[in-house]
């Protein structure tokens, strides 16, 4: 698929936590679709999925609602959604019917759950990039190649609804916590999926947001240096906490990844494009 992704935000200089802020507000939540039958299909699809897999559970997610600002400081606009609505809208076989006709990306996706995923381009001390092959246990793209990642989690910072955020002081505190969770969560994902100790990883640099064209799925990408060599990373991978999500770890040169990128979901291909833009900027 030639147009597999769209870059929603590119930060090739790589932004540190102090350069990325968050505006977490219910105005960035999903707008219900006016077609009642289509809207009701969200619950129907979720109920079918739960019957097929009893291990499914519905968790809160941050919803991508756009951004403002340009380098060297950007502000992410985030609302709240959940996994159930993601399965029933973005992953709905009729997902294209949820799209609103608009050139504006956020308006086009206003009826979709659009939870913000994350991914990390991790470079080892011998300049290899870490890529995982997804297992057949996962809900999306089983068997595909991906960068380590997952989601920032609202419940990690005590957010279960917008109600716990009343008042200016609480709002500012929530924004600060959510912003930090963007960076903390990607380190957690790398540690859990690869098995490397957090102490071996550099502070993540935010390099942008990619959205795959297929079911308009957005993901934030980060660049991280690991001070272990690729052979050492392979050794610790065998005991990774979340190894059930993947079956193999590749440690490869950028030139090799160019050839393998077609086996990645669109949002991760976009992540690779963001990494190349960062390299081009001489980071």
From TrEMBL:
Protein name, entry field: Uncharacterized protein
Species of origin: Arctium lappa (Greater burdock)
């Amino acid at each position: 698929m030639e147009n597999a992704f769209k870059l929603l935000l590119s930060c090739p200089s790589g932004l540190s936590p102090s350069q990325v802020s968050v505006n977490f507000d219910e105005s960035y939540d999903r707008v219900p679709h006016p077609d009642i039958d289509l809207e009701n299909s969200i619950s129907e699809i979720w109920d079918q999925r739960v019957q097929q897999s009893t291990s499914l559970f519905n968790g809160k997610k941050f919803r991508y609602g756009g951004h403002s600002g340009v380098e060297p400081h950007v502000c992410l606009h985030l609302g709240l959604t959940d996994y159930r609505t993601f399965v029933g809208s973005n992953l709905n076989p009729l997902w294209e019917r949820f799209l609103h006709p608009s050139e504006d990306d956020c308006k086009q996706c206003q009826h979709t759950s659009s939870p913000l995923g994350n991914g990390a381009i991790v470079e080892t001390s011998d300049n290899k990039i870490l890529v995982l092959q997804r297992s057949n246990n996962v809900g999306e793209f089983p068997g595909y190649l991906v960068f380590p990642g997952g989601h920032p989690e609202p419940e990690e910072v005590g957010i279960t609804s917008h109600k716990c955020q009343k008042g200016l002081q609480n709002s500012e505190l929530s924004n600060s916590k959510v912003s930090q969770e963007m960076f903390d969560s990607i380190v957690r994902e790398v540690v859990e999926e690869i098995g490397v100790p957090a102490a071996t990883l550099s502070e993540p640099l935010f390099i942008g947001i990619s959205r795959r064209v297929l079911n308009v799925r957005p993901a934030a990408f980060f660049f991280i240096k690991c001070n272990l060599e690729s052979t050492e990373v392979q050794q610790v991978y065998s005991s990774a906490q979340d190894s059930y999500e993947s079956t193999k770890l590749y440690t490869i040169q950028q030139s090799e990844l160019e050839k393998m990128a077609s086996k990645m979901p669109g949002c991760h291909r976009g992540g690779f494009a963001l990494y190349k833009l960062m390299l081009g900027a001489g980071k």
